[in-house]
Specification:
single chain; 347 residues
Amino acid sequence: MEEMLREAMVLGLGNPLLDISSNVDETFLETYNMKPNDAILATEKHTSLYTELVKNYKVDYTAGGATQNTLRVAQWILKKPNVCTFMGSVGLDKYSQILEEKARADGVNVRYQYNEKEPSGTCAVLITKNGTQRSLCANLAAANHFTTDHIRKSENKKIIQQAEYFYISGFFLTVSIESILEVAQTAHKRNKTFMMNLSAPFLSQFYKMQMMQAMPYVDILFGNETEAATFAKEQNFDTDDMHKIALNITQLPKQNSDRSRIVIITQGTNPVILAKDGETKEYPVESLPAENVIDTNGAGDAFVGGFIAQLVKGNSIENCIKCGIWTATHVIQRSGCTFDSSISYVE
């Protein structure tokens, strides 16, 4: 299968963010009106959060952003550089240099759009309850200023015309729905696979219009049980059964009728649900001792990274899911969305 791999097979669009991670107490969350396992965008009331975090807690810096994390993990499994290309907006500062160096070191072909007025985006990763819960507060900054000009550049347009697989995190819906739709329509015209992640409950609530603009182009949709439940409520599915929710999503309007929509819902330590062609199936997740779980941040991104790595190698959906479970299980035993690059996945 390795000979099938070539450069620029996968294109990801998203928000490149420098993760600032720390173990905090729950009163810290309460101070900023945040909840365990939250994922929000920073507002004025969160202005002091980042300063207080760095000042009062031990922090780790990691190249992050959901899509970039996913592509880093996919590259780790693939062991061949530049299969994945990532586009997003950053500032002209030291943070963007760190982001690019780390992403390229992991094999991702980074093609950032640079913003001269805004700093690179950051994300506070607030870890509580011995690593079992994490809350994200993202200050998008430059990441919020991605424009269609970047994907229309001749060198980037060429990549879009070459890619076989396209992936966006739902977080990018808040930034440039125009770019998403332009890329999605290109994928549709070329009959290539377009994938999206629900990413966070608030996106289904407050960016419903953008999400449903993109949904008709989605061939494979990822999400966890909390995100799927919120989506179902917003879409008036009138059920909290995850299997029924997954099946309902597969039946939403779709542009490419020749390709069935696949929906994959992760449920933490509970089985992963696959919905396809009117049926659902469950895949068990490896159970880890509580003391082995260091940080659940990035577990969902890692799952999709493992999934995509097997998908581009032409493997079955079942193998894609099993690899996703393996990569997520590995990542949660480490701090941040990181991995031991010397370890290889055995199919």
